[in-house]
Amino acid sequence: MSQDNIIEVQDLVKVYQGEVKALSGINFTVGRSEFFGFLGPNGAGKSTTIKILSTLLKKTTGKVGVAGFDVDHQPKEIRKAIGFAMQEVGLDDLSSGMDFLVMQGLLYNLGRKEARVRADELLELVGLTDVAKRKVGTYSGGMRRRIDLAGALVHRPEILFLDEPTTGLDPQSRLATWDHLNELHSQGTTILLTTQMMEEADHLCQRLAIIDNGLIVAEGTPESLKDEMGDDVVRISVASISESGSQELYDKALSLVGTQSYVTGSSLEGGELVVNVRDGDASAPRLLKLMIEHDIEIARLAVSRPTLDDVFLQHTGRTIRPDNGEGDEYGQAIRPLLGLRRRG
Amino acid sequence: MGAMFREVYFIYRRNLRTWLGVPANVISPLFISALLFVLFGAMFDRTISLGGFGTDDYQAFLVAWVIVQVVVFSGTDSGFSLLMDIMSGYFDKLLLAPINRFSIFFGSLMVSGTRALLQALVVVFLALALGVDFQTGVLGILAMLALAVIFGLVWSCLGIMIALKTRNAQATQTAGLLFFPFIFLTTAFMPEDQLSGWFKVAVKINPVTYVMEAMRAMVLDGWDWPIILTGAWVAGLMLAVLLTATTWMYRRQTA
Hints:
Oligomer: heterodimer
Structural class of chain A: alpha/beta
Structural class of chain B: mainly alpha
Largest interface: A-B, 30 and 22 residues
CATH architecture of the largest domain in chain A: 3-Layer(aba) Sandwich
Shape of chain B: elongated
């Protein structure tokens, strides 16, 4: 294993019982202190991958190294090095937030006193000190993610795994979670997260792998992935009094932009002038100036860049539609039976 | 090894707290034992005149059956507790921790033993309150409780195996129905002398009968060693077999 890579995965294949092929040979590496994202729809193989890396699931074939240890032969060493927040799954609903964290501490070999101190620190960190004594089963969705995250941090892991950390959260809680993750990353924690949300991947991750049907279909920084998608687009509407006058102006504008070296293509589409350029933000003012110099008055100008949605569409032929995390059947069925009502 | 004791203890404490955290878990066995005592005691009170019971106090005759009944059903609780942790994902959280995976198993089993002990203890207190006279005294009560714990573990292993196999809450809970014949095809309400035909044959085949008879001997007759040792031997053998099978299954499912 190379020194810079804290996670190395080679030809990883997972076939579930009943011949369902979840992973068909994936390869990737994650550098030390990198923030790496797995982007893909439900059932793409994201969770399977993260479960194999965290020793919860046995792989079928391939080579997996985490934190310098082999997943087959040194699972216990790996467990000490990683923390895993599992989409609010695995919370102990009947225990208080405090007890849950103390128990996590004890499981990671902290002394009783140490575990208590650490639990206090973590409650403070995720802003749950006020509800420390309340049962976890009564926490709101956002609070559950935070206590889950805190539980994964008791032993100050080198690597943090996060399975869809913000699926189903309201925008405010999502932003708060993002802040926590950025903070942890800035302290040197390597983070590997899975997400169905383009925005999340774009906002957080230094490098991304797009996974679909058990294969990595694209990999790179969010910027490079978007750059591969081609040019930025500037859309221009001209101001004119009459219909025929406007047509004339558009024709004039179209021939004008065709002469510019930074323009890679242009057309009239749906009553707009559409100009393809390498760098939208830098080209827009130049286009604006060009039009004004030739007495064409502009009513509206918009710059757009390819999004990760376009990237995903390009590589998988589909758009991604995140579910809203309502699949918590266990929670919905069992929690009321235990007398646990969720409140904010 | 020391580390494992530590782990087992933490998991035991957490599981016990989880069980005690739901009041219904504690109250319902109490209620059921009281109900069985009072109802069956009243229902069959006059059958004592048929003879062969070894006592003229029908409630004293019932004690052993009520204990067996609560510890057998505590087995479904063990399966259900484990399943709840599997379904909630907490089990995965435990597997993620750098601990021995058998610590989780033994911690759970210890809670099962504690549960059987507490429930049997409740029955003993009820019986004492109802004026049942234990022939073997305090030592006999302790021996009965020990046997109840062993037998509780037997049925907990079954409950855990059903939970691991089905991974289904409903199946695990209704698995208790499978336990019914074992509880009723015994000398539950009548001594063996009063039984006949296929029923008597079934009762003699059912291992539960021997464990119950051992407990009953301690309540009614005193230290009747052949009967008591047979019961202890049957319970011990069942535990050895089921513990091996459950450990094997657990190892396969968590590997």
